[in-house]
Amino acid sequence: MNGKWNLDVIYKGFDDPAWLQDFENLQNMLQDYCAFAEQVASADPKLALPENIKRQEEIQSLIMKMGTYAELRQSANTRDPEAGSQMGRLMAAYSTVAAPIAKVEKWISEIPELTELVANDPALKPYEFMLSNTVRDCKYLLSGRGEEIMARLKLSGGSAWSEMQSYLTSTVPVTYRGETTNLSTIRNLAYDPDPAVRKEAYEAEIAAYGRIADPIAFALNSIKLETISDCKLRGYASPLERTLSRSFMKKETLDAMLSAMDDYLPKFWQYLRAKAKALGYENGLPWYELFAPMGKSSRKFTAEEARDYLVNLYEGFDMELANMVAEAFDNEWIDFYPREGKVGGAFCAGVDAIGQSRILTNFDGSFSDVVTLAHELGHAFHNLCIRDHRPLNKDYSMPVAETASTFNECVVMASAIEKAADKEEKLALIESQLQDATQIICDIYSRYRFEAMVFENREEKFMDAETLCGFMEEAQRQSYGDGLDKDCQHPYMWVCKSHYYGPTFYNFPYAFGGLFARGLYAQYEKEGDSFIPKYKKLLYTTPIANAEDTALVAGIDLTDKAFWASALQMIADQIDLFCQLAEE
Questions:
Q1: Exposure pattern of 184-216 as b/e (b: 16+ CB <10 Å)?
Q2: 334 forms bridges with which residues in the sheet?
Q3: pLDDT tens across 253-290, in order?
């Protein structure tokens, strides 16, 4: 099995005639759209609105194909100068239509008969949700050439700072036991069965961040100030309001979820203290032991074994999912292993132009890595479920983005725990699942709190690396409580997590997705196979409805704290079982 993904089915390189032709075609499309936008004010909406949709569909399809290819190239090798250069060219070209698109959207918002027009035109009807949001969001558009100016400034502003953070964290040398390695490899050692390895790897990781913290502090300060300025210019009350608006999610939903999380945090602290006690610690769990394996489940998987495990498992759930998983492994959708220059973590990118996805992981064969593969393959399944949507309906919002991925994890873990050979293996599996649950509750809450602190302070002052480390430690104390050893935290989490350098508040969606998926999985356990069509319909609905209406497909009220509490109670029950097994 090839350890790297195949991108040649998209383009064979930046010198591929297909790439060169597509870039020329894109420039022509953008130029034509600018001319179209100049005339739209005097056009007949019945003719111009469908034409606008057609033009934007063509542009969106091509820019996504080219942009995804460049991003995948750069993620696999941040030292690839061509990828960064071509991505810059694409962004610069696309920025030319920012003002024209804003002009057209303003025109759309002022069409008096828009609702009737959309209802009666088959070409427009699929975009009912999108067009209604165009009207809603028009008040946030910048006038004149404001949109174009902001888009162009972002090239040398937020986007450039984000690329620097990615470059520094993927290339900084890490010294470990007399040898030089990278952050992806060293972070994987957090799961090593040897406590000495975990501790030394943590110390090596922390030391490495110190070498790059200052420039990344400048990146974070600059990105957040740019966000604050953008929100003020557009009329948003805060960056959080902008995030919720663009996430198509109500503040009442976020408040209900966070309130339920607050109620259950002490339960997670109980789990952390129980794990600390089992590992021989008295003052809470040191950071480097958060992912310490427990029980006896040290099985290692090859990529081929991971494939067979997941395909066989999902065949018992849904054949469409199982077939897609097999295709992902067999047709080189996945870039598996860590290497110098490759970004850390894992992600999935849909490539709609070829009807496939591409998945990046840093696989080292642990069961946790198999679960990570399942998670990213869930994103790929989500992409499959929305494939039949029109080109402008392929984006789902951040909160629902983690639904299919976490649901996939639930399927894997429920089966693994049920089939555990003995108490030791069951303990290992439950503890592994609680590790992940603690990440989406305690760690995500700390990231949310940290970002809120940064926004509260950035407008008035520059926050140096030491200040940011202090904020991070305070956020961790609030979220981990006495479950974490206050003398051994991770002050540099703001350095390594790319989420702070992209979409604003890309943290709470992980808690949302984790809890929403668990609630859905509980329904699956009650309803059995009859739930699966409903689940697929829910995933299909995600790009064309807000979060609350999407949940209603499964009969869920997201503004009701009781729903979130029911999902958290599932984890609380596992914590009770873990504490019992750990005590025994």
A1: bbbbbbbbbeeeebbbbbbebbeebbeebbeeb
A2: 359
A3: 999 999 999 999 999 999 999 999 999 999 999 999 99
